[in-house]
Amino acid sequence: MQLSLCLSKPTQHLKNPLMAASGSGSIMWFRKALRIHDNPALEYASKGSDFVYPVFVIDPHYMEPDPKAFSPGSRLAGLNRIRFLLESLVDLDTSLKKLGSRLLILRGEPGQVLIRCLKEWGVKKLCFEYDTDPHYQALDIRVKEYASAAGIEVFSPVSHTLFNPADIIQRNGGKPPLTYQSFLKLSGQPSWASSPLLTSISSLPPVGDVGSCEISEVPTIKDLGYGDIEQEWIPFRGGESEALKRLKESISDKEWVANFEKPKGNPSAFVKPATTVLSPYLKFGCLSSRYFYQCLQDVYKNVQKHTSPPVSLAGQLLWRDFFYTVAFGTPNFDRMEGNKLCKQIPWNDDDELLAAWREARTGYPWIDAIMVQLHKWGWMHHLARHSVACFLTRGDLFLHWERGRDVFERLLIDSDWAINNGNWLWLSCSSFFYQYNRIYSPISFGKKYDPNGNYIRHFLPVLKDMPKEYIYEPWTAPPGIQRKAKCIIGRDYPKPVVYHDSASKECKRKLAEAYALNQKLNGQLSQEDLDNLRRKLEQDEDLEPKIRRQRQKVGPLT
């Protein structure tokens, strides 16, 4: 594949939409893979078919409002991700119409809806991209069982990842590789990497008769029941068209691609983020990870030198596959209990501290600004994510990583089951990474990148007039400075919920004891063991000077 191919948008041509819908038909079930380029399921659905039904099912649990949730959105997703998905569906529908087709929107429980469509439309093939997420694994078993009993061919190719996780696990004797380097040795080069991917489709068979099935256009936020909710401007728009545009912009700077080195980068850059911001497009499959990988390989061939995995851009795609593989091969990967990879740690349970973190009320401007960005944009730089995850767990608050995972899972537009859980396991030092003495300071880490505090001033305007000497520790500003900045700490902006120096020492002490017990019992801790350790840690804490907490009721998210 030549770089010029990577930089161009897939070609699309119109086909006569009045073509008679007779003979064999296929259903193309879109879930992720919301794209035309490199979509083997869509390609197979159209082969030998007189008509194709491109279907997307609106699941009420995922899309419709939940008034009990802590942020606008449904029971399972925040409004930013729902909006990004709707934009992606509109873009997909537009692309399908250019090919002589359209996207058929149905509502209901996806399994029930698909089975009803299979019964009513009399198709010969059901095609959809394979998905390793537990939710889809269970759903797909139900649908496949019905299709097989009805004599319907099911085609479910692996195209969301570079490799098939099951193949990697099989090569490793039935177990997932637990380190990145072992994953690289097992995986090698993708089998498809040396051949051009299908990046354009000239036409698609038309949609057949939909019978009594109720079909609608892609709904708006208002259609879903969110009313005229005021939306924050977000610099990321969903859809394949936007994904390909961002990809083109990113890889056109060959020097930047060649020298990309994660985890370096500026987490405080928000006008122009210091990364590609392609993660949400990969999450929804608006961008094929395989296509992205081939484009990067073409860049690497045309430069004298470039970075390599694990720090290169291609290395980031391989990290993604690593987490997918480990998650797929590890029962209970998304929890501490019953997860053989996870250290058993008696995390604190404090709803007040969790709410302060979640609602940007910790009193640490660097942490709170990141959480405001998360609420408003549904995205933040990976080092910003590291900062707030460390603060919640092993750095300061010693709260359970599952609680933070739940917040990210709801609010991130790029929330991905395998990667989100894997990163929280890593950042809490529960698995993969165990150097718990290395902590992201909620004060000095952000200051290193943004000494003037411009990021904080943007997302926490209450602090916009605070002198840079105090912007990261506003509680240290003299009263006169606070009055001049129109920000009185404890009134206009909260005091710190904990003091970092003493809190981080406590966290390290607790983790040291938890690690020691895990080693002694070979990771086989019972609930009684955890309860006993928790009581011991609390007793030890009583013997030490108390960690001073400044708790107060403050206003809502600013």
Automatic annotation (TrEMBL):
Cofactor(s) the record lists: FAD
Domain of life: Eukaryota
Binding site for FAD: 275-279, 316-323, 414-416
Keyword Cell membrane among record annotations: no
Keywords: FAD, Flavoprotein, Nucleotide-binding
GO molecular function: deoxyribodipyrimidine photo-lyase activity; DNA (6-4) photolyase activity; DNA binding; FAD binding
GO biological process: circadian regulation of gene expression; entrainment of circadian clock by photoperiod; nucleobase-containing compound metabolic process
The protein's name in its UniProt record: (6-4)DNA photolyase
